[in-house]
Amino acid sequence: MEIVRMVVVLSAITGLAGFVLSGLKVWTTPIIEEQVLTNVQGPALKQIFLQGDNDPIADRKKLPMPGNEDETIIVFPSLKGGKLQAVAMEASGKGYGGDVNVIVGFDVAADNLVGISVTTHKETPGLGSRIQEPAFTKQFKAKDPAKAALKKDGGDIDAISGATFSSIAAADAVKQAAGWYAALKDTIKTTW
């Protein structure tokens, strides 16, 4: 009888704990998402959007992902005087230490890259982490997305010596975002 009571009490405790934890997750998810937007993506957007006079985070829109209408992509606009100048979206590539997330900006008039900014990565400090330095990221500025590949792949971008996987990951993220931009270009231009 004692064992049955123990099992019932432990089941009640674990059930209550599970309920509290699931409620806590539901309650904190929007707060965490807002913090990521403000403290991770916000600074990256400021590095890319130098000319805009709006708040790209406040003006962001979710658009359907090309080829998978069940998922969405967050598109951040850069407006000047109410006119759309550029957009940015975050994509990722597989690096040495895991995913490399990159905000990629596109000039909507010229359909070329405005620039890139690495938001998160787990690359080797001092080596792979150099993908976030201006010496690497500035190579993407004003590039035709078709030429924003590493030189070994026929593009114009110099890889970081000793950090090939990290360089490939950043270039792959740019390629992924360029594909999304090309597919959503008409929708983007009519959304803002």
From TrEMBL:
Limits of the FMN-binding domain: 95-181
Enzyme class, spelled out: translocase
Domain of life per record: Bacteria
The keyword Cell membrane belongs to this UniProt entry's keyword annotation: yes
E.C. number(s) listed in UniProt: 7.-.-.-
Subcellular location: Cell membrane
Membrane topology: Single-pass membrane protein
Record flagged with keyword Transport: yes
Predominant cellular place of this UniProt entry's protein: membrane
UniProt keyword annotations, A-Z: Cell membrane, Electron transport, Flavoprotein, FMN, Membrane, Phosphoprotein, Translocase, Transmembrane, Transmembrane helix, Transport
Cofactors demanded by this protein: FMN
InterPro entries: FMN-bd, Ion_transpt_RnfG/RsxG
Residues with PTM FMN phosphoryl threonine: 164
Subunit structure: The complex is composed of six subunits: RnfA, RnfB, RnfC, RnfD, RnfE and RnfG.
Entries under HAMAP family matching the protein: RsxG_RnfG
Cited function: Part of a membrane-bound complex that couples electron transfer with translocation of ions across the membrane.
Family under the similarity heading: Belongs to the RnfG family.
Identification of the protein by name: Ion-translocating oxidoreductase complex subunit G
Species assigned in the record: Desulfomicrobium macestii
